[in-house]
TrEMBL record:
Keywords: Glycosyltransferase, Transferase. This is Glycosyltransferase, MGT family. PANTHER family: STEROL 3-BETA-GLUCOSYLTRANSFERASE, STEROL 3-BETA-GLUCOSYLTRANSFERASE UGT80A2. The keyword NAD does not apply. Residues 268-371 form the Erythromycin biosynthesis protein CIII-like C-terminal domain. One of its GO terms (biological process) is antibiotic biosynthetic process. Residues 98-189 form the Erythromycin biosynthesis protein CIII-like N-terminal domain. InterPro entries: EryCIII-like_C, EryCIII-like_N, Glycosyltransferase_28, UDP_glucos_trans.
Length: 390
């Protein structure tokens, strides 16, 4: 049996895509462990993983409040501060994590490491320990065309990543946007139906959904029979009052019901009586019946919506989100719209089109069918066992 160590980052969108493949390996009788920079034992226990096999990284503390809400919204709106934050996350934290992860690898002696390819400590430790590793991307970075340009691409290209690896005697790997590419296996949670082509050396596995509980389940919302529009802006970047306000105004008097998952804003947002404003919504359960999804374009949210055949209105804010919005729009599975500036009438027209039976829904359903055919979490787990052998 194989011992697999999953190395993840702290935020939900960087953890959830690993749950399904890890559950599949465990079902097959393999030993599964997790490593994260903060303590994820409680949520991963709810997803079925033994707490004693969830290792805590160098800091051990949850992400600071500055990494979410109003302070984080202000940070990402400042290009210089955002560049500094990206550099700190990708490069500056690596030495401490290399030291701690090396200890865990010596204790656990895994046969394979399955890592978020933005967690650069993982490929460094894997190379030094001569352990194969697989990259399960939590973005669409591995499939971004070389011809595209963005602020994130410019920022990551300027980081001293080759020098970082050289400090540990590890040859510089190939990078694509934020991701470090593996010589064994790279998985992107998508298919050619969304991105328009196959990509050499990248397994397009469809959608990574949990096989059992994911660990973030909350109480179901009581909704009526009207079509549902869900709006959520992720676990970090939810403090966008104007974006929620314009969607709420655009939904007034319309035939759909609106659910807003808005983090701490839910405590103070003046939602109309027929709008449900909650801090955290059961996203997978709601997407199973939603007609449209309004999103910031986080890769995990886009993947989950398209896996359910739900068209999107994507309003990208930072980082890889403009890439994801472009993929969605070019595939016809939704629209890109800047909710920080859009007028109410424009947003209403977009939502009405998304809730209908037009091209956006047909494209989203076509992508959903391709995701099911690609195999998802089970296909990725199988690829780890087939390709990542020392």
């Amino acid at each position: 049996m194989t011992r697999a160590l999953f190395v993840v980052l702290a935020e939900k969108g960087h953890v959830h895509p690993f749950v399904g493949p890890a559950q599949e390996l465990a079902r097959r009788g393999h030993t599964v462990a997790f490593y994260a920079p903060c303590d994820l034992r409680e949520p991963l226990a709810r997803a079925g993983f033994a707490p004693e096999r969830v290792f805590v990284g160098a800091t051990g503390a949850p992400p600071p409040d500055d990494n979410r809400g109003a302070s984080f919204a202000a940070l990402v709106a400042d290009p210089e501060r955002l560049r500094g934050w990206i550099g700190a996350m990708l490069v500056d934290t690596v030495p401490a994590e290399v030291e701690r992860l090396t200890q865990v690898v010596r204790e656990l002696r895994p046969d394979v490491i399955v890592a978020d390819p933005m967690a650069y400590a993982a490929p460094i430790v894997a190379a030094r320990a001569e352990i194969p590793w697989a990259g399960f991307s939590t973005s669409l970075n591995p499939v971004v065309p070389d011809t595209w340009d963005s602020a994130l691409i410019a920022t990551t290209s300027a980081l001293p990543r080759a020098a970082l690896f050289a400090e540990y005697g590890v040859p510089a790997p190939q990078f694509r946007v934020s991701d470090c590419l593996s010589p064994w296996l790279n998985v992107a949670w998508t298919t050619a139906a969304l991105i328009g082509r196959e990509v050499p050396d990248v397994l397009l596995a469809g959608a990574s959904l949990p096989l059992d509980a994911r660990g973030d389940e909350v109480e179901a919302l009581a909704l009526d029979d009207r079509p549902l529009v869900l709006m959520a802006l992720g676990s970090q970047i939810w403090h966008q009052p104007r974006m929620f306000e314009v969607v709420t105004a655009a939904s007034r008097g319309q035939p759909w019901q609106l659910v807003l998952a808005m983090g701490g804003l839910a405590r103070t947002f003046a939602a109309p009586p027929d709008v449900r404003a909650v801090a955290y919504a059961p996203q997978l359960a709601l997407l199973a019946r939603a007609r449209a999804f309004v999103s910031h374009g986080g890769a995990n949210s886009v993947m989950e919506a398209l896996a359910h055949g739900v068209p999107l209105l994507v309003s990208p804010i930072c980082n890889d989100q403009p890439h994801n919005a472009r993929f969605v729009a070019e595939a016809g599975a939704g629209v890109a719209c800047d909710l920080a500036r859009a007028e109410v009438d424009e947003v209403r027209r977009h939502l009405a089109a998304l809730c209908g039976e037009g091209e956006h829904r047909r494209s989203a359903r076509r992508i959903a069918a391709s995701y099911r055919a690609a195999g998802g979490a089970r296909a990725a787990a199988r690829a780890v066992l087939e390709r990542c052998r020392a």
